[in-house]
Write a structure and sequence with these properties.
By secondary structure, the chain is an alpha/beta fold. About 55% of the residues lie in helices and about 15% in strands. It is globular. The two termini are about 15 Å apart. The protein binds thymidine-5'-diphosphate. Thymidine-5'-diphosphate binds near residues 17, 54 and 155. The site of thymidine-5'-diphosphate has 14 residues, from helix 1 and helix 4.
Length: about 210
């Protein structure tokens, strides 16, 4: 039996890491086996690529180079970890996946969704998650809650206009892929958001 592949998406500071932690606690409490990984990263090779991408010193990195590096890290993770786990029937949770490339590189960096789809199609052969949990919170609210940007993070330093475009991109993707996307209102308290995630996963028969 094939396992279930669930990805988490959202703008910076929406509380994605915290929600993943709460979901992990829930799964552990209910003895549900899962494997958690992240993008970019999740394998030794992909983590090295991650360091190059996110290094605040790499200001000369072109948008095309960035998009290709994300796709390279992704296919390594997919082949080395995600596919084997799914083939073994496991529940795989991934913090970000190809939708991040579509939103950040396609919409916000301006490379165009078609270009980003094309390189990712080459890398992952349209291998998509069963469900994508999108934590919906506009970047203005997210940065306010987070208390500003992380100055060592090249992506976070891209400016509010950039993050607004990322957000608009995600909303577009959610509209385009309604059966895969689960849109979660992340404006409330963390426990409220957590309850919404659990309910949504129960509704889909994942939990
Ligand atoms: P990370 O510190 O993991 O951020 P977060 O906690 O918000 O997930 O850094 C990942 C960064 O990389 C994040 O700013 C989003 C960006 N990113 C892309 O631009 N494209 C991608 O394809 C992926 C996977 C991430």
């Amino acid at each position: 039996m094939k396992g279930t592949f669930i990805t988490f998406e959202g703008c910076e500071g929406v509380g994605k890491s915290r929600q993943i932690k709460l979901l992990e606690e829930y799964l552990q409490k209910h003895n549900i086996k899962y494997y958690l990984t992240r993008e970019p990263g999740g394998t030794p090779v992909s983590e090295q690529i991650r360091n190059v991408i996110l290094d605040g010193k790499n200001v000369s990195m072109t948008d095309e180079c960035e998009a290709l590096l994300y796709a390279a890290a992704r296919v390594q993770l997919l082949k080395e970890v995600v596919k084997p786990k799914l083939d073994a029937g496991e529940l795989v949770l991934c913090d970000r996946y190809v939708d991040s490339s579509l939103a950040y590189q396609g919409y916000a960096r301006g490379l165009g969704v078609e270009f980003v789809e094309k390189i990712n199609d080459y890398a992952i052969k349209n291998f998509m998650p069963d469900y994508t949990l999108f934590l919906n919170l506009p970047p203005e609210d997210a940065f306010k809650r987070k208390g500003g940007v992380d100055k060592g993070d090249r992506v976070e330093l891209s400016g509010m206009d950039f993050h607004k475009k990322v957000y608009a991109g995600y909303l577009d993707l959610a509209k385009k892929y309604p059966s895969r996307y689960i849109v979660i209102d992340a404006s409330g308290e963390k426990e409220e958001t957590h309850a919404k995630i659990i309910n949504a996963l129960k509704e889909k028969g994942v939990l």
